[in-house]
Amino acid sequence: MLVAMGSKRLIERILVPTDLSRDQYEFLDYAIALAGQLGAEALFFSVIDSPTMVRLIERHPSVKKGSKEGFQERLMADANLLLRRMVDRASSEGVAATGHAILSENPAEEIIREIAKRKADLVLVGVEGHPSVLRFFIGDSTEDLMERAPCPVLTYRSQQI
After folding, report:
1. Residue 32 lies inside a defined structural domain of this protein
2. How many domains does the chain have?
3. Which domain holds residue 106?
């Protein structure tokens, strides 16, 4: 546990933005393990933007039926269910956690707001790709976040290349 001499823990809350994709299990395991080792709370957060929405649409049962009525509400319910599962998984490992999703077209801006709102001490972002092309794959949102965040941003690169 990281603790400055004579003071509180240095990292009490870790914001963990996620796009809710199936390929993030390794990243989420790492986030939970890191929070556990630091004695920190994991704050799972998803900004449902166009790319994220497409991933969720692909897995949502109502798309198969062709139903469009109330789709946005069902999409948010599905996102929050996935986040609830992340929270439950963290809790089963003894890690305090919360999770919620919002709709927005500007993930980096929303993550910056969430950092301030939740008083996060660290942001953990999952990225994919070989180190030589990492900058290309982390995208504008992650790069913007790294430049503007009021706290450290730790990137986690998947071991599955």
Report:
1. yes
2. 1
3. 13-157
CA 11 to chain centre: 17
Q: What pTM does this model have?
A: 0.79
* Residues 122-134: b if buried by 16+ CB within 10 A, e if exposed: bbbbbebeeeeee
Left if phi > 0, otherwise alpha if psi is -120 to 50, otherwise beta: which for 2? Answer: beta
Residue 5, amino acid = M
- pLDDT at res. 132: 40
pLDDT tens digit string along 91-105?
999 999 999 999 888
Q: What CATH number is associated with residue 38?
A: 3.40.50.620
Phi, psi of 118 (to 5 degrees): -95, 0
In a domain, 8, yes or no: no
